Amino acid sequence: MRLKALSLLFLGVSARADNGELTNEEWWEKYGVKSVRVETIVHRRKHDLNNLPEYARIAGGWIEGSPTANSWIKDFSKNEVNLWHNFSFKHLHPCKELYIKFHNRKGVVKEDLQITNWNLYQLRRELRQRGFMHKDSEHQKLTEEEKQSPYIKYIYKLPPKKKKTEL
After folding, report:
1. Where are the domains of the chain?
2. Which one, 19, 94, 115, 126, has the greatest CB density within 10 A?
3. How much is the pLDDT for 94?
């Protein structure tokens, strides 16, 4: 009994603004195009990564967290973090999560990523994609181009292939 009363109640309600005075085709011409079709044309400026404004460019970064948060982070913080140019590790105790924080030249954090579930390979890949320079040794002298990384993105190049010589 209640179900019939509810169905009659809903059947009597009209969502149309004209109370049924227009035909379906007239209604769609008048209201449908404006309300149903949503145009999302956004004109975005395509940024060249080397021509970003200074406040938007990444100039450095660090990992923030505890060395006991992951199995690989303790070794990374002791051995490998010094090999990445403009990158460091900040200890936070007690902390169960790891974050990468990227900052601009003024030190304002522009982006932070939670990396608690990442492995060492994913971290290295992310740093290379962001343009951080990985040195071969701690005492390696860097060129001017390498010193500006990641502010000016460092592009890794494969070593030249050796030509085969015939004897």
Report:
1. 53-147
2. 115
3. 80
